[in-house]
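Lab notebook page, bench 4
Experiment: in silico fold of construct C2
Operator: M.H.
Input chain length: 238 residues
Purpose: comparison with the prior construct
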Amino acid sequence: MPNSALSTPGLWTNTSASLIPPLRPSTAEAEGDFYPPFNPIIMYNFSKLLGIGVLLFIIIANAAHTAFDSYYGFYYEESKTELVAKNPAARMAASVCQAEPVRLFCGYTGFGTGYGFFAPNVASDFITLYEVQDECGESLRQTNLPPFHHKESVIRYLSATGMFLDKITKDSAELGLQKEFLDVVQRQLADYVRRRDPAAASVTLDLYLYDYVTLAAAPEAVLYEDLFYVDSQTSTRP
């Protein structure tokens, strides 16, 4: 290569190791627009954060929708629809949970079960009192539970007693055949206890609910326990 080419400024840069052509800025850099190269790790982390954010949003929406629905349904049952329509937060939570994609997603994944509740609207625990009597009508013993052998049976039994709540929330005309069904279930429970005791001639099952103290009387109520009577059914030896 002639020496004149090496001495031409701007054409070649002479170094001790090699001949390197000069670096020229690209068109984007020259115009001031520079885009960093694509980074898959950043996009992967961003997609994870986006997915977590969407799931948290659905969970919060379901919790809010459940809380509003429980609150208005318990205290304002007749005007529940109008009150929800006036509350922007309740409307937004309901619109999110009732959207078709969200509803299908929550139905198949279990996110639609709801994680919110209004604390005063707690479940009512029924108190069952079995009175075992002999042939003379004398009381042999009293018990609150049938003779179960497994802890799982007790949990299922306590959960099943919730069906009796319809006896105090609905009248006889509204219940119809359901009242007869509840009476049969109650007698069958008494019959189960009677058949487990050879000395029992009859068993009466009384249903009670806790009559909780009011907030006004709470400071004076050191020990308050009262029961609200619901119904009774008796099973007699044939």
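Observations: The chain has two domains: 40-113, 126-236. The chain has ten helices and six strands.
Next step: discuss at group meeting.
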